[in-house]
Structure formats: structure tokens, C-alpha cells
Amino acid sequence: MISQCFCNTTLYVFIIYPIDDVKSPRAVVNPDISKIRNIGIMAHIDAGKTTTTERMLYYSGYTRALGGVGMSRERGITIQSAAVTFDWKKHRINLIDTPGHVDFTLEVERALRVLDGAVAVFDASAGVEAQTLTVWRQAEKHHVPCICFLNKMDKPGASLHFSIESIKKKLKANPVLLQIPIGSGKSFTGLIDLITNQQMTWRVKSRAEDGRVFETKSLSQSDDPELLQDAMEARAALIEQVADLDDEFAELLLGVYGENFDAVPPAKLQEAVRRVTLARKGVPVLCGSSLRNKGVQPLLDAITAYLPAPNERHHDLVRWYQDDLCALAFKVVHDKQRGPLVFVRIYSGTMKPQSAVLNINRNNTERMSRLLLPFADQHVEIPSLTAGNIALCVGLKQTVTGDTIVSSKASAVAAVRRAQNEKEGERKRGGEQASLVLAGVEVPEPVFFCSIEPPTMSRQAELENALTCLQREDPSLKVRVDSDSGQTILCGMGELHIEILHDRIRREYGIETHLGPLQVAYRETILQSMATTDTLDRTVGERRHMVTVSVAVCPIMDSSSSSLTSCEITYDEEVEEQLSPDVRDAVENGVNSSYLQGPLLGYPVQGVSTMIQSVSMEPGTSLAMLSACVSRCMLKALRQAGGQVLEPVMSLEVTVGEEHLSSVLGDLAQRRGAIRDIQSRHDSKVLLATAPLAEMMGYSTALRTLTSGNATFSLQLDIYEAMNPQHQNALRRNQVFLYA
Description:
Elements: E1 2-7, E2 10-15, E3 36-43, H1 49-59, E4 82-88, E5 91-97, H2 105-114, E6 117-123, H3 130-141, E7 146-151, H4 160-171, E8 175-177, E9 179-182, E10 190-193, E11 198-201, E12 214-218, H5 225-245, H6 247-255, H7 266-278, E13 283-287, H8 296-306, H9 316-321, E14 326-335, E15 339-348, E16 350-351, E17 355-359, E18 364-368, E19 370-375, E20 378-381, E21 385-386, E22 390-394, E23 404-406, H10 409-422, H11 431-436, E24 448-453, H12 460-473, E25 478-481, E26 488-492, H13 495-509, E27 514-515, E28 519-520, E29 523-526, E30 530-540, E31 543-555, E32 568-571, H14 573-578, H15 581-596, E33 608-617, H16 623-640, E34 643-657, H17 661-670, E35 674-681, E36 684-692, H18 699-707, E37 711-722, H19 725-734
């Protein structure tokens, strides 16, 4: 509903959304693919992601009250990607709100894998923070176009200039400013849209007002000359910047509007900004305050205007599968009534309930009983869903995160034929499976582990079932049984990650488990290259097994990388040609088994390249004996190459008042921290440092005590670094059990 009034020839448009018109997705189950936007909201912890999601749902008419959508509100963070679907101005938006805490980076990773665009939310008083940088890199890896939302413009110290410079310097991005704020801090009242030259003002008289009503008027009628001047300069800079980034717009500007750039129609400028965004040459920047209900509606407009539709993102499989079903399972959750619910992104074809689908990764057929649409905090059953959408499937009991789902083997074979026709020169060996399967989610290695025990042995089976379900939901959770102690070991991404899992086992499965001491997941590598030969000669019954193996190992640890370098296996050319596939598998099994426990302290081996130089087997020698000989030869080579323990080192950012800076610095020195930089941010100091993960356990409590709660910090894995001999010996003495 729009009401208008005229006063002194100034046009005021008050935009009012009917408060009781709560919509239903049944109205438009399958919109046109060009009207779909699959987007994610990503940012640093506490930048306002979940609040922004709630406001979007409220203003679009899918919820009646503000608040209540985000998961795990008692912790103040979103710990799982909450998928919601809603409509905005004839567009279908599938939105995933992701956590900003470093322990849940995998949630962000698997969300970005299936999204077409992303909204990066920033705290306007802090700019780019540690986890913002991490999620931005993840978005870049998947070539996801982004727009930026400078949230919390109402906070003291909020700065448009500071945030823009932070995006340029830290993200190495090209911000395209589409709005400028009217006022800042408590005086923040609205925005100026530089595309349309309009002023939007939220006249909030009390906190009870929900921001549905805001005033829009032409900027040319503004009574504030300074504001008008700022807007004119900002729009001129925007036009010039877009012309530099988009050739089509530059030609239009010079040809038609050469004498008056200000005469460029808003529609032409908007089209050019869209092309720049989709080409990832620039990122549109908007601002507002979600908590104060300002600027969210223009953000929704920007999502539909600038982020891509599914058919504007080019996936090979869409071309190869054509109208046949092809979907990626990117998340699994367990529901007590329905069983496992699988979130899928449909890339091509149509998905229907009561149909059989083929899981290519597992090579098995499953029947999907029901198809659901994630509708805010409830699920609505639907009869079908087409390409470009995100859905929930019930009945896929074997499917896990990263699996590719197609309609049948026949459709997969047809897709392979199309792919091979397209790439005739490509080697066919291994090509079929690679062409058929969508790239799954990369799962990082856990950095923490601890033992977990049920209250009584009679509940061990229940605990194992709970852990199996949780592993299907969360691939970053690893569970193993220690070979020496027989304990069940829980491996996760951080203290909070393991704490959340512990709470979920208690709340969802009713098991009061006991966690052992939290341990750091160290690794081992070698110091030098080494070549060895070993012979195994055994007689079992009347059969003689004799094999001689020569291997060479060398270190390949990349010290500049924040991730561990995987071990690799290569062969001498002559040896590779002589070995059959079965023998190669046996050799590689032997090498991989030697990587599980390093020769120094028994931690997994990383960053080692192994070359198989020769394999000589007597006739009748079993493959098991070959694997055993390779493993023994590898252990000998690793011992002779000299071992080195690697410890995870974290990148740390602490924001603290100047009066507490010396206390924080002293505490970090005791934790083997290395200070990289100390920056000023308004009235606070930002401390950038690195410190071993083992020394940072319990840091949140310690920092709160040191600063009386007046400090914030963030951690993320920076690098695996060689541990000095003194601490390595201390680790040997204090080792509780081996991480195998």
C-alpha cells in the first residue's frame, strides 16, 4: 500500500507494508528461474547476520514478529546454516544464514558451494575483521559474486570511510558505493540512494516502531546543501568508477551523455552495476542498521537487482544433464519424527516426492518419500521443485554431505556421452566419474580432540548411534577408537565446536556423556630426504612370501600455507609400468598406513612425498605381505629422516581499551604469542598476534578477567609450525594418549 501527499511541490512517498499479510510459499512453488536468488549471508561473529535475516523475513511478510529465527540464540551466534525461503517483489529468495565463528567455517564452506551470490555483512565501526577475511576468501574460491552491507551504522564510531578503506586494503576488493548514510551513530536516520538520487528516511519515534514505514523523496528538494553536495560528489564518483569497470556503460556515457553525466538514467546505471557485480570486477556497498530496522528493504532490492539468477552461473553439469535431474546434497540434519533431512541444491531437472533417485557417490538407489520447502522455521510439503531451487528431501537414508543425486543411471550415462562429445580429446580413464559428480565440500582437518564416554557401558551403543548421526550432519566431526586405550575419541574444529556437540548429545539424545581433557591435534613431518630398502621373507605353512621394496621420502611441508600439505605418493616410471592395479593398491595401502602414526610421538604424518623406487616380489607372495613390507620400509625411512612435531598456530585479533593493553600483552607473552601489529580503532587498540593453539585454550575466560569484560577477540588457524625442542620434550612427557 502506498500513500502520497504533496507539500510545497515536494513528492513524499510513504512506503507501508501490510502487517497482517503473512505470505505462503504455496502461492508460488516454482517461480521462473530468472527470478530465483540463492544467496548466503556471511560475516564475522556478531556482525548482525542473524538479525539481518530476521528483518528480511519480517519485511517480506513471512513472519509476524521480529526475532526468533536464528538457531542457538543462547550462545549469541548461529552455529548451523539456517536455510529459509521467501519472496520479495516477485523474486524467490533462498537464503542461508551462516555462522561467523571460526569453529564453524565448514558451515560457511558448504553453504557457499551451492549459492549463486552472497551478502557480506560488516560492523561499520570495525570494518573487515578476522573471520570476514576467511569467509571472503571462501567466496572468492567459489567465484561467488558479493554485495557488502555496512551494518550497525547507528553505533558510536561507525564510519563509512573507514569501512570502505578496510574493504580495499584487507579484502583487496573494489567497493562500489551505492548509498551514503544520513548521519551516523545515534543521529543515523536514513540513506541516500546514489543510483536513483533519492533520500530514504526512517522517522523512528520509539523503539516499538518496526521500520516498515519510511519516507522517500527526491534529493533535489533537500533542504541540506551539505548533504546535497556530498551526494552529488558520491554519484559522480560512482558513475566514473562504473565507467572504468564496464566498457558498455563507458561507451553509453561518452556517446549519449557526454555533455551531462548526471543525466544518465538510473536504470542504465543499475544495469551497469549489475554487469560489474556478476563479472566480479566490483562489489556494491550498502549501509544500514538491521537492529534499528533501517536499510533492510533497500538491501533486499539490491539482492534482486545485482546478484545472479541460477541460470547466470555457468555449470557444466547443467549443460550435460539438460532436463534430467542433477542435484547436490550440501547438508544433512536429523529430525526425530522424519529421520534424516537432506538439503539439496537442484542444478537441472525437476525433483518430485515418491521417486527413486541415484546417488552417484554411493552407487545406490534411494527412494525420496517427501519433498519440503524450508519456510522460515517450519517446513512446507510441496509436490515438485525445479532447477535453481533449494529443497529438503525426506527418505534419503544413505546420502551424506557432498553427494551428487541424479534421476537414474541412464541419465548419468547420457550426460557422460554429452560431456565426452564436448571434450573428445580428454582421456577417458577416470573421466566418467569425474564428469558425473559435482565437486563436494572440502572438509578441513580437526585441530582438537578429546575422549568421550557414556555414563554406563550399557549406553555405549546409544552413544555410537548419536555420533554416527552427528557425523552425517557435520563432516568436520571425526570419531575414532584409540587402538591403545580403547577410548572413543571425538575430533573437532575448536573448543566451542566440541562443546556444542557435547550439549547436543545431552539435549537431543538424552545421554549425559563425560569428556576427557581437550587435546591439540599435532602433526609430524620429516626434516630431510632419505632412501631405504627393506626385505620381508616369511614362510606361512608351505608357502614362502618374499618381497623387497625401495622407497625414498622427502619433506614437502609448505610453511607459507595455513593448511597442512597432504602426503603424496609417486612412482619411478619403470616401476609404475610394471605394477598391476592390485599391486599398486597394496603398495599405497602400506604407505598410507605408515602415515597414520609418525615415528616420533605417534601423531599423523603430514607434508611428506614418497617415491616407490623398486618393488620385487617372488611368485606366490601375498598382497598383504607386500603392504606389510612397504609399511615397514616406510617406518624405517621416516625414522632415519628425522622427525619434527608440527603445532597449529592461530592468528589472533584482540580489540581492547588502551588501559588494559599492557595486561593483555603480558598475558600473550606467557602464551608464547608473537605480536605482529598494534593498530588504533577509534578509542580502542587492535592487537594482531600469533600464538600456538595449545596455549589459547581457555583464553576467552582469561581475557574477560584481565579486561573486566571490556575486550573482544577472534581466532583462526594461521599455519602449522615446527615446535621447538624444549616444548617438544615437554609434550613427550605430558602426552596423554596418541592421536592416530
